[in-house]
Each structure stands twice: as C-alpha cells, then as structure tokens.
Amino acid sequence: MIRVGIVGVGNIASMFVQSVEFYRRSGGEPRGLIHTNVGGYSVGDIKVVYAVDVSKHKVGRDLKEAIFAKPNQVPKLVELPETGVVVRMGRVLDGVAEHMVEEFPPSSAPQPELEELVDEVRSYSIDVLANLLPVGSREASRFYAEVAAKSGAAFVNCVPEFIASDPQYSSLFEKHGALVLGDDIKGQIGATAVHRALASLVTTRGGEIVESYQLNVGGNTDFKNMLDLGRLDSKKVSKTMAVAATQPNPDTVLDRIFAGPSGYIPFLGNTKVSYIYMKVSGFMGLPVVIDLKLTVDDKAMASAVLVDVVRLAKALKDRGIYGSPGWASSFYFKHPPAPTRSDEEALAVLYRELEKLKIPIEPKRLPNWVFNTA
Ligand SMILES: NC(=O)c1ccc[n+]([C@@H]2O[C@H](COP(=O)([O-])OP(=O)(O)OC[C@H]3O[C@@H](n4cnc5c(N)ncnc54)[C@H](O)[C@@H]3O)[C@@H](O)[C@H]2O)c1
C-alpha cells in the first residue's frame, strides 16, 4: 500500500481520489493509464490517508465530502467508501490570492507550526506528499516542501514552483534523506505534451520553428486564480521552457514561443481548450503552418500522471533513492531538473534507470530497441 498525503483538496485531488477507487475496482485490464504497474504497484494500491487545506468549506470535513465541496466541480464519478480522513487546517501563507478569498475562504481554525505538521506526517507514516496548491503559492509550496523533507515523505510537486529543479531545495531533501519529484505536472495528453510533440516532430523532419503560441482557456478555480498576472511568472517560464527544450538551442527560440494560460471562461468548468499555432520554415524556406485545437478534461490529464508519479516516488523510496533524481521527473513534469528534447527520450531514460534499479514498469510504451542498453 502507498500512504499518500494531499496538500490542497481542490479539483485534481477530487479526480485523483476518485480515480484510485475507479481503478481499484476495474481489475482485469485497466484502460487509460500510462502504466498499469509501477514498481510492483497498481493504482489500487494507493491510499489517501492525510489531507490538508485552508478553506472553511473543506477543513474539518471527511475527505469523501470535502472533494465535492465548493468550488470544486469534478462530478461524482464513483461511489466512494468511508475514508476516515478528516481534512486538517494548513498554513495559509500566500496560497489564497486576494481575488480568490470568496472561492477559498480561510477557515478560522488555528494554523499549525511547521514542526507540528512534520510530526503529524511522520506519525501517519506518509510515503508521498502531493503538492496541489494554487499557482503563485510560492511561500506555501516551500513551507510544505520543508515539511516533507523534514518528515522523510517523498514530495511530489505538481505546481509551477521551482523546488525539485532548485539545487538549494534538492540539497535540502538530500540532507534529510528524502525524495522530491517535480516541477509542474505535465498532463497526460495535455497542451504541453502535444505542443512538445509537435515541436519535436517539426525539428526531426528538418523544419525550423519561426514562431509558435499555445493559448489555454478553462473555467475552474485554477484558471480563475491565474487571472492575477502577478502569480503567473513561474507558470509561463515552466510552460515556455517545456516547449523550447525540444529545440537544439532552447535559448534562441524563447522570444518566439508563447505558452501560457490565456483566459477564464466559467461555463467551461474543468474542460480545457488549447489552441496551438506553429509557423515553420520548411523545404526551400517555404512556410508550413500548423493550427491545432485540443479539448480535454483538465483534471483527468493531471490525475493520469499523478497516479504514475505517486507509485514511482514510492518505488524509489523503497530502493532508498533520495534527493532530486532528474531522470525520474523528466517525462512527468514540465519543468524538471533535467529537461529532454522529447517525451520519448525522457521515457527511454526513465526505463533504462528503472531497469538498473530493478524496478518494474509495465507496459513499456516504447519499442525495445529505444531503451534496451544490452
Ligand atoms: N492539468 C492540471 O490540472 C494541472 C497541470 C499542471 C499543474 N497544475 C497545478 O496543480 C495545482 C492544483 O490544481 P487544482 O485544479 O486542483 O487547484 P484548485 O484551485 O482546484 O485547488 C487548490 C486547493 O488548494 C487549497 N489551498 C489554498 N491555499 C492553501 C494552503 N496554504 N494550504 C493548503 N491548501 C490550500 C484551496 O482551498 C483549494 O482547495 C494548481 O497549481 C495547478 O495549476 C494543474
């Protein structure tokens, strides 16, 4: 079993908790997963045993109810058993933006000290703590990262705050013998994954990107929170770098790539629509133009990756791996410590390293010749 703690009981948390139950019951040949087996664990081996939030709509409630409390809007997809997990109060810090107070009204419950949470995370024997705070939670993300490092829990940083990719923080985790994976989770078939695939394709076929943008709109609190441009700096860096990293000289294309959240349209709910445009200089300098529209369930995209990463973190922890192993984050995150030119390259490296550690991962999504070093 993998004992997971969640920081931020928002829409991803709701999809994640429900997906674990969905796959636990599915048996046979589960569909839609990137990997069915990671380190000997199936998705059904995940158990959320701890949850932290600050909203008065969620704190003090059973997780089973809190995941449906407003403003969450992932619908009820499966019947959940009693969880026995009561959402505890966290530290607000910069987690709640001024324009989000109505959505995430802080509870009046006392806010814990760091050491209190460290003791608690230890006493619950939490294997993996997942950071699911709103974009722009710079201080709060670092606060919970420190809780994880000091308690020995692996920290999975799903948000665009640079922690796994910051040498100062990777040293902190190393010092405490704890693991960190991140940063900014890359959705399963999300805008970044698709944009990167297009950029890789163009380069592999000898084209040159002249200019490209990725515009994203959605209607959940994640998009509403990002209306405050002051909270977006690291999100834009994360998304733009993810696409630029596919190019031979990433720095030279940065000013010709735009990738970021671009609008909040409430009626879209958790549906995210992305428009990707790419102008390419092709054969004899003649232009090629790609215009693509992608429509996804934003929270399913994130949870599909989270169920893999949580199992990977536990498998690495089982083998005594700590610090910030870049190779473990490259495939799953937008801003990893070790960016790769393509997702195929990232996956090949992941498979090779796991093979060395004798950690199973199935099914392999690449042909054998790509990752077999023998
Ligand atoms: N496809 C995706 O959904 C995707 C992809 C990459 C990254 N992310 C990032 O993942 C994060 C979570 O996304 P979401 O849609 O679940 O967000 P959300 O807005 O639904 O939920 C955020 C939750 O955090 C809580 N919170 C705020 N401050 C807190 C604090 N200090 N301590 C504890 N809890 C606090 C809020 O009350 C809320 O319940 C966001 O940063 C998002 O940008 C999402």
What is the gist of this entry?
The protein is built from 13 helices and twelve strands. The chain has 374 residues and is of the alpha/beta class.
Strand fraction equals 15-25%
Mean pLDDT: 96
What is the total tally of β strands?
Answer: 12
Which segments are poorly predicted (pLDDT under 50) over 5 or more consecutive residues?
A: none
CATH superfamily annotation of the largest domain = NAD(P)-binding Rossmann-like Domain
Helical residue percent?
25-40%
Q: Over the alpha carbons, how many angstroms does the gyration radius reach? A: 20 Å
What is the string of helix and strand elements? EHEEHEHEHEHEHEHHHEEEHHHEH
- The main sheet orders its strands as 4-3-1-5-6-7
Shape summary: globular
Largest sheet: 6 strands, parallel
CATH topology of the largest domain: Rossmann fold
Query: Which CATH class of the largest domain applies here?
Result: Alpha Beta
**Hetero groups bound?**
nicotinamide-adenine-dinucleotide
User: How many domains, in number, for the residues?
Assistant: 2
The chain-level structural class is alpha/beta
Architecture of the largest domain in CATH? 3-Layer(aba) Sandwich
Number of helices: 13
